[in-house]
Amino acid sequence: MQSQKGRFEPTRFEDLTVTIDFRCHSACRFCIVQEGMNYFKGVPFERFKQAVDDNTSAPRYKRVTFTGGEVTLDKSLFDFVAYARESGGFDHIRLQTAGRLLADMDFARRLVDAGIDEFFVSLHGPDAQTQDYISQRKGSFDEAMQGLNNLAKLDVCIMTNTVLTTMNVDVLPQLVDTVGHLPLARMEFWYYLPMEDYADNLGLLPTMKQLIPQLKETIRRAKAKDFGVVVKYVPQCLLGEHGDTIDNAQPDVVIVEDFYEVYPEFACLYEAKCEHSESCLGLHNPYIEKFGWEEDWITPIPRTTPWREPEYGKAIPTDNPTGDDQEAATGHPAWRALVDGVAEKTETQLETMLLDRRNCVYRYVCSDGSSVDIVLTARTSERRALARSHSFNIHYRNVSGDSKDKLQAIIRAAVESVTRRDNGALMLDERKGLVGPDAFRRPKQLG
Ligand code: SF4
């Protein structure tokens, strides 16, 4: 068994992920990739070659990960692996897989002989009953376990990946018992990210109250086995002594960057106060919309370094496309009108409004100094937001201060006001570099 020491940390920002294909022989009920199948194709081999060649001439990535769908189904996988291996540019070649085909020892050995030295195997339940229900494929658990047992004989790095949903939350700790005999380098646990079912109509999102005790016990057992543990998309402060397991980093993805554009956005009410807010994402918007901010449980760790306010673009002096200076003195009336009455309704102050080509930012301040930025961006992006109006994605950020109720009231009132008033006359541009009147769709209707 080779040593795994130091294997991950030096390269975690030097990883490249290549999505070969989105087809799969399982049909996991939560599958974010399955949702993505409606949008995306795999990477053409020629484009992959270009990425590898670029990396050979200007080294940047040390690991390449092949993923899908289920990549082991794709006959071209061996061509991709061979090209990566022969380039000599990567220290590690990883496969992300459900592991079912690895139950065939000859096939598993072929993959290893081809040059794959790391296997990231999905395991979503501790037993056939759970896993086969989730994958909707009878026998998939037994196949994956046989695959893992085969890998254990091949002196490769083995990791497991578990998506945290209501379907496995109650049996999570048993997962460690199931794989406890394996020489795992790491177990990863990713909180479910809806990519289409943002309202969680399928009921797959466990509440933090359901999840956290189970997850902490799971981590405790995994650590006792000396497995590395990584948790993604869960508030760091809720994990207490296991907060060290949070790692929300994701590798660069070849070609289908848009795949990540439909990931839900995250927010935390304590962003500006918390020491962890650069590494912790907080809760995702589908969770917040369904269960709330968990503001009474989430606990910021006081910052030891000053909070750096987000930098917005260069402000546009006026929303009057004629460039009339008189208009500039009064700000941006059409944009201001979108939130008319919000300050009065919430007994707060609209301190500043900043309009650049890509954002319209309203900063509200409470009487005790608490503040929040309500941010509008172009709706043309597929990126998820807290809410959407005719033309805009609506977000909030740069939350500061203790007036939680007031801040939440501002956010709600601003969302309601913008969605009600935005009739499509105004727009923002998500492209970089577009200037001036082009930022407006129908300038004559402004004011
Ligand atoms: S307070 Fe917010 S940013 Fe800080 S650890 Fe908790 S969820 Fe993360």
Would you summarize the structure shown here?
With 447 residues, the protein is α/β, with parallel strands linked by helices. It is built from 14 helices and 15 strands. It has an 8-stranded parallel beta sheet with strand order 7-6-5-4-3-2-1-8, covered by helices on one side.
Task: Please explain how this structure is put together.
With 447 residues, the protein is an alpha/beta fold. The chain has two domains: 9-291, Aldolase class I (TIM Barrel); 325-445, no CATH class. 29% of the residues lie in helices and 18% in strands. It is built from 14 helices and 15 strands. The protein has helices at residues 32-36, 45-57, 77-87, 105-114, 128-135, 140-152, 172-179, 208-224, 258-261, 285-291, 325-329, 333-337, 342-346, 404-421; strands spanning 15-19, 63-67, 92-97, 118-122, 157-164, 184-191, 228-232, 252-254, 266-267, 283-284, 349-355, 359-365, 371-378, 387-388, 392-400. An eight-stranded parallel sheet has the order 7-6-5-4-3-2-1-8, with helices on one face. A five-stranded antiparallel sheet has the order 11-12-13-15-14. Helix 2 (45-57) packs parallel to helix 3 (77-87). It starts with 14 loop residues before the first strand and ends in a 26-residue tail after the last helix. 41% of the residues are buried. Mean pLDDT is 81; it is low at 1-13, 255-261, 318-330 and 431-447. Bound molecules: iron/sulfur cluster.
CATH class of the largest domain: Alpha Beta
CATH fold assignment of the largest domain: TIM Barrel
Order of helices and strands: EHHEHEHEHHEHEHEEHEEHHHHEEEEEH
Number of strands: 15
Helix/sheet category: alpha/beta
Give the strand content.
Answer: 15-25%
CATH homologous superfamily label of the largest domain:
Aldolase class I
Query: Which blocks of ≥5 consecutive residues have pLDDT under 50?
Result: 1-13, 255-261, 318-330, 431-447
